Amino acid sequence: MNILFNGDSWCWGYSLKNRDDRYPVLVANKLNSNYTDLSDHGCSNRRIVRTTLNHDISQYDLGIVCMTFKNRTEFYLDNQWEHVNPGRGKGKKFLDYYIDYYSEEYGESDEFIFRQAIIDHFKSNKIPLLLLSVAKESKLGYDLMINTNDVPLGSTKHPTEEGHYMISERIYEKISEMGESQVQNVETPS
Predict the structure, then answer these.
(1) Domain containing residue 84
(2) How much is the pLDDT for 96?
(3) 188 and 133 in contact (C-beta within 8 Å)?
(4) What distance in Å separates the CA atoms of residue 41 and residue 57, rounded to the nearest whole number?
(5) Residue 88: its pLDDT value, please?
(6) pLDDT value at position 37?
(7) How much is the pTM?
(8) Within a 10 A sphere around the Cβ of 161, how many other Cβ atoms?
(9) Domain tally for the chain?
(10) What is the spatial distance between Cα 82 and Cα 8, in angstroms, rounded to a whole number?
């Protein structure tokens, strides 16, 4: 089995001493599978969708994509993509974006568009999808919300080694529950 992972710092393994302890590696090892991990720390749903669409997913048997917080985005500046994240790092230089342009309605619209793009892309390529989210809450349906109160977080608010293990077990359980059926089972809201 070949698995494609994409997501933000939770998928990437930010703050872990050994990135082999992140949930993509744990899941792939448990399933005795090959995997590709396109994730990047501090990124947005826009980047997750962009890099997934730019990647040939036909070589995979399963996609496990973890959407991030709806208020993140990215800009293409000086021949490179810049993560725009209000919480930390370089995103602080784009605070005027959040003051002058961003709103909850805008974020919810982006979340809907990017979530649906991922669902439709995997569906049109006939590749099963397990769709996750690190958001604490969403009006939209996901197969698994991984940022739950029982998942241990470190000082940077990212899962600890134990937290990644817990997430990997929940993903494995979801995959096992789905069996041969389509893994991605959330529907477009009406």
Answers:
(1) 2-178
(2) 84
(3) no
(4) 21
(5) 59
(6) 98
(7) 0.91
(8) 17
(9) 1
(10) 14
Question: Tokens 């739950």 label which residue?
Answer: 148
Residues of the chain with pLDDT under 50: 180-190
Please enumerate in sequence order all residues whose Cβ is within 8 A of that of 105, keeping only pairs 6 or more positions apart, or say none: none
Domain-located, residue 186:
no
Q: What six digits make up the tokens of 89?
A: 């790092």
Q: What is the pLDDT of residue 82?
A: 87
Distance CA 51, CA 7 (A): 10
Other CB atoms within 10 A of residue 53 CB: 11
Q: Would 187 be classed as within a structural domain?
A: no
The pLDDT score that the predictor gives to residue 188 is: 41
Residue 189 lies in a domain: no
Tell me the DSSP string of 38-60: ---TT--HHHHHHHHHTS-GGG-
Rounded distance, CA 66 to CA 133, Å? 5
- Cα(56)–Cα(189) distance, rounded to whole angstroms? 28
- With DSSP H G I counted as helix, E B as strand and the rest as coil, what are the percentages for the chain, rounded to 5? 40, 20, 40
Helix (H, G, I), strand (E, B) or coil at 5: strand
- Structural element, H or E, at residue 99: helix 95-100
The 10 Å Cβ neighbour count of residue 148 is 12
Distances (CA, A) of 149 to 15, 69, 89, 154, 159: 18, 16, 25, 13, 11
Q: What token pair was written down for 42? A: 């501090």
Task: Give the CATH number of the domain where residue 78 resides.
Answer: 3.40.50.1110
pLDDT at 98: 87
